Amino acid sequence: MVNHLDSSIACSLRQEDKLMLKADLNPRRVHITFAGETIADSTRVITLHERGKLPVYYFPQVDVSQQFLVKTELQTHCPIKGDASYWTIQVGERISENAVWGYENPLKDIESIKGFVAFYWNKVDAWYEEEEQIFVHPRDPYKRVDAIQSSRHVQIVLDGIKLADSRRPMIVFETGVPVRYYLPIEDVDQNVLTANDKQTSCPYKGDASYWTAVLNGQTYENIVWSYLNPIPEIPKIAGLMSFYNEQVDVYVDGELQPKPKWYYSALEFFNETEVTVRRQ
After folding, report:
1. Integer Cα distance of 241 and 182 in angstroms
2. Domains parsed from the chain with CATH numbers
3. Rounded Cα distance, 218 and 206, in Å
4. C-alpha angle 107/111/115, rounded to 5°?
5. What is the pLDDT of residues 212-270, one digit of tens each?
């Protein structure tokens, strides 16, 4: 079956005229390591998009090192994909339980993943696209991340107190994510901010550091973040600070911005007529 995959693979279970699943053949080489061994290495990975969820990589079983997998008794059921079987990874004395799953007999609308398995991201040691390590989750080919220099007047207000005032924001437009305003540190009131130990990672930007604000006796945890050393694809936000639009009032050119909405999957903002689907 692997030899007959098209670049866009049918998986078209519908719900109220919405496409619930879409699978694409990923042209990148993707490989996974665990305990010093390559567990999977393939140029024929399927990227599965499911409405409301992050994308998932599915590997042809022929490209997975079967000697490191032990099938378990665990089974789960998905109403749009079918019954899932699970495998544990074992390399020497290291074990990662139920780290791999696959639909051995998937439902008709998603037969394209038959013979493929997926891995829990955090149950292996490292993921790579070509020779670059990737983090958190697969990069979505339907997502864009653009950092654009602007002269718009951005003000950040919290609890009636102005925390930032800038006419030189770097505005980041990311598909499915609220618009973010990254501001020079000089334009942000550092007197109310304290750096903390929290860190998160983003597959499109890198590792983020966080600050907490204390205003009028109230603490606002992790309300500001910055990518001090972003990945090479987005260097323009290095060292700039951004606030959670959801927790502060953001004024742009004097106009209060509405509270934003998040999307996890490209299918969240596509309906069936906007996504090309070809059947096997």
Report:
1. 5
2. 2-140+268-274 (2.170.150.40), 145-256 (2.170.150.40)
3. 30
4. 115
5. 999 999 999 999 999 999 999 899 999 999 999 889 999 999 999 998 876 655 555 44
Q: Of the candidates 149, 129, 132, 131, which has an alpha carbon nearest to the alpha carbon of residue 141?
A: 129
What is the distance between the alpha carbons of residues 20 and 53, in angstroms, rounded to a whole number? 10
Could you identify the residue written with the tokens 């990254």? 182
